[in-house]
Specification:
The chain has about 525 residues and is α+β, with helices and mostly antiparallel strands. The protein has 13 helices and 23 strands. Strand 14 and strand 15 form a beta hairpin. Helix 5 packs across helix 13.
Amino acid sequence: MLRINELKLPLDHPEEALRSALLERLGIDANELLDFSVFKRSYDARKKSSELLFIYTLDFSVRDEAALLGKLAHDPQIVPAPDVSYTFVGHAPEGFSTRPLVIGFGPCGIFAGLLLAQMGFKPIVLERGKEVRQRTKDTWGLWRKSVLNTESNVQFGEGGAGTFSDGKLYSQIKDPNFLGRKVLHEFVKAGAPDEILYVNKPHIGTFRLTGMVENMRAEIIALGGEVRFEHKVSDLLIDDGQLHGVELANGERIESRHVVLALGHSARDTFRMMHSRGVYMEAKPFSVGFRIEHPQSLIDQARLGKYAGHPKLGAADYKLVYHASNGRSVYSFCMCPGGTVVAATSEPERVVTNGMSQYSRNERNANSGLVVGIDPERDYPGGPLAGIELQERLESLAYTLGGGTYEAPAQLVGDFMAGRPSTALGSVEPSYKPGVKLVDLAEALPAFAIDAIREALPVFDRQIKGYALHDAVLTGLETRTSAPVRITRGADLQSLNVKGLYPAGEGAGYAGGILSAGVDGIRIAEAVARDLLGIPG
């Protein structure tokens, strides 16, 4: 199999043009080309004056690869295709009785459980929340009726926080073993569209994700694993530095010397429990800020120009970063084209925002986190849990500013820049449910964060015309950009001081988003399998 990069075609090219372009570029007859497939398709819209083209990477096979490579040795874009297929590190022998535990059934826990099941280890998955269909009903209870279920919400339950998001499936992690391809292939097998295998920035959306996680759960069970919902882990059973099981909130104990800890970033009670048990952890940087909403049409026009609204491109996204004069970095986070701002708290009398999109991305607004980086040394010294305590204080303040009803505090960008409270909405209708209360958001965050965001907005407006639109809406607060702790692990991917405990995913500080969490789940499953089978790492 060979690969060709940088094959460019017009946006509206017919399907058959791709084969013709490949034959022309290779300089071969049609009968010499045995097969080809799209590995990646992207486009570059940065130059508004030029025609927008699709840019393809294709994998293909021909009758005589050696001869073709020799003939085209001058072309650096034609190379042998890397092997991106997945190979298991091993399989449990027949009758193998040792069963690992997986705590948490978000993206990381799903892939850890799935891989362990595929290798024959029959894992037991413990999820504190509910299965995804019931969880969705509970989540809508907060959005529509301001009724919070603290164990079944945007953060807790089957699918994890990624279920109520844009379903983005791309990441900037280093992935030399192509584990991300394994994640994408498993998603397609579970019901995702094939296009996620090749489009530049694949996404799925909430409605599709719900069915997919059910299918992945079904495979784990079919392979002999178990998935137990409403099973909250309340304690770790540790003797002389060796984990030998867990205790549940209902008093049940489950023995295991291999426990994958895939909590997600919001299991604060579990972080506190582990800290009290002496599990090594440390505070890590995260970010705080607001959600910003614009008309999606404004973003489309600014990013795509004359191609705005083109059906092959869909809703446009963006990624922005600015280094403010006070030393703080301001950046867009979890940008959701054609989406909504959602209530994402998991605790009473606190307000948290997040962004969500469906696969169609056809809602009227674009939204993104607009956040400022903070770190333990400057902003929350005092130990591993100090970042959690800061999040809690800010979320409680947001609840108070919002009126104490789970409405979120909000402000128009023009008023935010002028330093005055907003008194009426303009042309942009905020999407956050249960609703917003207009306030002065300068009270919601530390002064350094407010100053940095005010400085960044005009800069972003020069990059995306209209970004500092007076009527654009800021909604607070965005506090759970990532876990504020890292449960540090060693080269064997086990806790530094508790053997048998495998911290994993976003909650442990080793992932950020669905794809990277899934990849980390695979890595952890491989580490568990190696230890169970006595295979060197």
